[in-house]
Amino acid sequence: MRRLFFTTQLVLLSACSFSAEGTKIRIPVTADSSEIRPVETDLGYEVELTEAGAFVRDLRFLSAEAHSELLRPLDLLVRSARAHPGHHHGGEVTGELLGRFGLRWLPDAGSLGEATLLPGPYVSASYGFAPAEESDGLVQSSPLLGKAVHLRGRATKGEAEVPFVVLLDPPEDRLEHVPFEATVGQGSPAALGLRLRLEDEAGTLFDGIDFDVLARGAPSPLSLTADASDPAVQAAHERLRIAFFSHRFHDVRALHER
Amino acid sequence: MSARSTSAETIRGLGALLAALLAAPAVSAESHGYSSEVVGEAEPPKSASVHRLRKEEILLLPRRNAEDLLRSTPGLSLVQHGSEGKGHQFFLRGFDAGHGSDFEITVDGIPLNEWSNVHGHGYLDLNFLVPEAIRSVEVTKGPFTLGQGPFAVAGSADYRLGVPRERRGVRVAYTAGSTWRHRGVLTLADPAGRNFLAVEGLHDEGFGENRDIQRGALLGRWEMVDEPRLGRLHLLGAAHVARFGLPGALREDEVRSGGRGFFDASDPLGRGSSDRALAALGWERRGDSTEFRALLHGSLRSLEVSENFTLFLHDPLHGDRRLQHQRSRKLGLRLDHRLELHRGVELESGAGLSAEVLRQVELHVDDDGRELGRERELSATQSLAHLAAGLRLQPHPALELFGGGRIDLAHVEAKDELSRAEATGHALALSPRLGAAWRFAPHWRLYASYGRGSRLPEARAFVAAEAPPMVRVDAAELGLRFRPAPSLEFGASIFGSYLERESVYDHVSGLFLDLAASRRLGGELEAELRPLPWLRLAVDLSHADARFVESGRPVPYAPWLMFGLRAFVLVPSGTEAGLRLRYTAPRHLPHGARGSSQVQADLRIARSMGPFQLALEVENPLGLETREGEFSFPSRRDPSLPASEIPTLHFSPAPPRNARLTFSAHFR
What we know:
Chain A is mainly beta. Chain A has helices spanning 2-14, 73-77, 211-215, 231-244, and strands at 25-32, 39-40, 46-63, 92-106, 111-117, 120-129, 149-157, 160-168, 175-184, 191-196, 199-200, 203-204, 222-224, 250-255. In chain A, strands 1, 2, 3, 4, 5, 6, 7, 8, 9, 10, 13 and 14 form a 12-stranded mixed beta sheet that branches. Chain A has a two-stranded antiparallel ribbon with strand order 11-12. Residues 66-90 of chain A have low confidence and may be disordered. By secondary structure, chain B is mostly beta strands. Chain B is built from 4 helices and 35 strands. In chain B, the strands form 5 sheets. Chain B has a 22-stranded antiparallel beta barrel. A 5-stranded mixed beta sheet of chain B has the order 1-7-8-5-6, with no helix packed on it. Chain B is 5% helix and 56% strand. Classes of the chains: A mainly beta, B mainly beta. Chains A and B meet through helix 1, strand 3, helix 2 and strand 4 of A and helix 4, strand 25, strand 26, strand 31 and strand 33 of B.
């Protein structure tokens, strides 16, 4: 009887298998400056950047099981019945690079680290912005302290050339829905590039900013910061801040060569 | 002494006691006279996918509750990821039907899906059903019959109440189980089975940490009038209270590393309560060529759930515990009519109207229940009306055709108490239903069915859109049944369904996401035989290939291959036994993860001696560690670690080896 019991148990156990996690893939993440090139704004300025950097934190990459449509306006408004996680997962975080990182596009692109991703089709990414700290190598008097984004360059229009610096405070919200369309598998892609684009189909990052007017009477370089005393500069800063922290000018690119 | 060794000793003790009883000579053991006939209507099923539970399946197989009866249905899988008091999760024909979002349950015609429940869309809770007062269950896989309403996307089950003929009279039973289970039940039923009362009291510590349940239930039916001229008028009443633990889902890596035991709780503090009061007044009148049924039903309902699945993922200080609470009042009227217009021509029609007033709250709370944030507060009035009509034609004695359809119209007035936004909206579903049954040879029947099913958007969705989108599925099946002898029956069917848009819930954002179209293709094989007068065997094999159309990737979580075996022994001298064995192949989980295979076996042996019966139920007699529910989602146990949102495997265990011994006395 005991033998029968154990034989039966053995037969049934042989039909059993254990669950297995999906393979986790490590992929380097770098800054991608391939789309940072001189652009012409709606006001006729040619803007060229010489320095561009940001401090970002907790990068997350979202896949959509079976290529879900991205969130529609209705979805953003409707929080559905919250049972608990686990029944289904479409459009969820399946890759990440946690921590705080200096993201330097210019003068030369830097590397952030290695992200961990599950294989599958990806549709978007998100990351937060963090304030610069002394531990980032800044002196206490540096205007970059506490700022999340730093852009330096020049805007030229005819004979006029306006050197400028942009400093943006970190926003409260994360930058969501950054386009990231790629299929991640073993060995592919070779790296992920966080790309800053200065222009999209609808315009440039610097549209609506009349550099020449703002620079009149202001010290050079023109400093576009939140604490500027000139209301016009403040308004220009605000315009830039809104534009920069929208997903229009960011994407994540699958790089096939490191 | 470990819980497991205690359990094993208890089982050995109970087994020895039972063996002694079986060896004893039977004292005037009555013949039960079970037949292979199904309980309830004996007419052939309307589609190949209809599975009517036989008496043996209701009476001879082990069950803890009303949901467990469904485990005998080929291709239908149930998962309990809470404890016994919580609603189950259903999987059928490639659908993850959640807590009821895609699986409809009615009880004596009363729809039970809680349309806008705060815990889950279409939430199903059968706590109030005393299993001893269920006389039949009919499961329809797919949306093929006129009576199937909203939520019958993957299928539906219709419970019929009443004490089975063999148990009528006065019956009292007490169960003691190795999980410190104590259950008492009393049933009173008249010989005709028209009036009955069932009372149940249950206390069970559960098979692991925080899996306890305390439940009391009362269920009764009183037939007030039964006259040919007036018809039948009956009153149905039910009430239950249940308090239970909610252990959450265990992280696979914690269990593998030895940090947690297989039957431990991930959330030792999770609790739930479920209360309901229900009343229904039914009237039924039959004539020579007509049949009319009216059902007026009303209920009061309360559900409270405190759970923490993600632990410290979002709030490293207080934890992610959420307290969900809902109260609702519902009133409904349902009318069904059948009229024989001409010989071989029958008109079926139906109408219904229900209205529900609900209030729901979801709070972020700490482990002591203190409110940290209010995430949802909604009050709503939702009403649902339906009209259905169909013609059943029998142009030839061997051929039956059915064509019809139903319209379901939902109207919702909702107020988001947090944003103060108010909304009024409606949703409309048109569902054609077609079917054919052809007895093309003496022992053969061929079935073909087509139907459309729909899932209504919950009340909250109407706050954002006047007419939020509805999930619709078109399904078809072709089936064959062969019954060469009364003791032998085979069934085979193939099915397919197409969902134009899958809507799934993303817990990270707390939003519903629209996924691309999905389709399901599959088939089922069934065989039943009675090799000996006292032995019946049933085997089934179900396959469902569920994939997203565009990518071809499998729909996660839905079982793709299941095998079932049921064996029933019924010896006239008073010995009876039932065995249920289920195998589920490893399921596709998201992002390349793979589930484990599952083997679940349950056994019941009983011996009657005059009015007394002693029954032993053993769940998982081989003591296999089976992951009944497997999930992929992120969680963080240690708040000092980075908050990784990459999903990881979690599971809910199936019960370990445990036993229940029931002593009953039955007086006719």
